[in-house]
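cron nightly-structures :: item 1 of 1
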Amino acid sequence: MKSKVTHLNISHEITQENTDKGSAILKVAEYYGYNRENTVAFGDGENDITMLKNAQIGIAMGNACQQCLDVADYVTERIEDDGLYNACKHFKWIES
């Protein structure tokens, strides 16, 4: 199996060649018997762009790179400002 390494600002990501988070979210959904309409993605980095595009709802964190902000369906607060929690409240997935 061939792999690729993506160098991020503070970490590295190793994935199978010709695979990214965008294709992975659809494969995981299919594995569990869900379709795209049942997917949500949160992201903030360049490696999250395809995932945000492929999910039914792509949510960019407030601290996300500009490309994520551009493709997101919704932008929430920064991660350290309770962005994940606030997005879940916004979509009524949790109660306040």
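cron nightly-structures :: done
The CA atoms of residues 27 and 33 lie 10 Å apart.
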